[in-house]
Amino acid sequence: MRTRRSFIATAGALFVFSGCAWGQLGGNASRTGYADAETSITTANVSQLALRWSVPAGGFAGAYMANGLLYSLDWASTPQRVVAFSADGSRGCGGTPRTCQPLWSAPIKGQLYPTEFSGAAVIGTPYGPTAVAIAGNDLFVTSRGTNFVYLEAFDALGVKNCAGAPAVCAPRWSGAVSGTGSDLAVADGIVYLGTNINPSASQLAAFAVDGSTCGSSVQQCQPRWSVATPPGGRLAIGDGHIVFGSLILNLDASAGCGQQQCAYTGGLLANGRAALRDGWAHTRAGSYRLGSGVSCPMDEQRGYRACPLDWVREPGASSLPQAPNVSGDHVIMAETLNGGFAPEARVRVFDVDGGTTCSGVPKVCAPLADLITGGSTEGVTATPNLIFVAAGSGYNVVNVGTLFAFDANLEQGCSGTPKRCAPLWWSRTDQANLAPPTIANGLIGVSSASGGIRVYGLPN
Fold first, then answer.
1. Is the pLDDT of residue 108 over 80?
2. What pTM, to 2 d.p., does this model score?
3. How many helices (H) and strands (E) would you count in the chain?
4. In what order do the strands lie in the sheet with 201-208?
């Protein structure tokens, strides 16, 4: 087994250690889906995981964890709001089985985004716009207005600008940018908000986390800078770069960032929804190196450079609409094997460097292992010890969602070449279409399209 690597992106002083908090999509701005510091749950004790508390199916979406709290969106309330529960179920909870009520809430200005599933239940998952991000004591929420996207900043502890019992909180500052759909990420003291202006144009705006660009009105904060781009999409930030959909933007101030307008330099990603780690951009199609030493030829039709993949993944089934997970040693990809009402899926694990099981020019890499769930794979989250997979309905599991745990070292429960791995632990729920699990401080949170929340942990 190789020594696992930590990740400190020196460019822009972006530090990504997500074991103590899971405050945004993918656990961090780089969208790796990897909890580097979470080592309390191991292959030796994973069988002891049990349900700590839950919220019945209803109107909640997302299970972000930070500051000892679990944050979720309540899309069924009027007005819609963001709510905070006790993450470990020690406050505001009771009964057998244990259920919890929000400790405090914050009504939002606009409307949450609909998705292809019912209501807005999967906002903040790979299937819908990212509407929540937590960084330290700051909570950011986006919502939809008429041709605008609102950005509101709240106290993540539920103290400042809050009153009542249970407390109801008002925003510390807010802003708005043109557009409709959005994606949200926070890194290095900046809140990045990407919006779609129309089918052929997008915009990326950067706000100061502390609201220092608000001037005399905290209700009309302006971005530090913004840039018009060709159509964007998902955000990923790391290694001195921003990936916005299929675009690569340079965070270097010499490229214009830090000014009111930021001229982007860089190129076209071969496939959107990237995860960034250790100088690589990993996508659903393959991976390539970031940095000035990479040769990216000019795409004359699009007007910017197109960066080729350094290695590609062996053609398989259609990939699910999330970025791959990137751990110290592996790139983990969820795929759908066949469509229809009850699709079957698999999770494929590749070498992170493209250095083994690869051949040819361009380099094509076969998987190291397949993780078998028997149902449609909804999302993947990894730690140094385990890979957690949220699976929905399939040929072997119908109308239920199941959370699985596999050995991240591809040893226990694995055999054959390439390896096929069976789960070391699983828990079935009464809710399908589970979101990717979130992991922090030994707790695992998962929400569903049915609007429920479940939190697992080891015995106290």
1. yes
2. 0.88
3. 0, 45
4. 182-187, 190-198, 201-208, 225-229
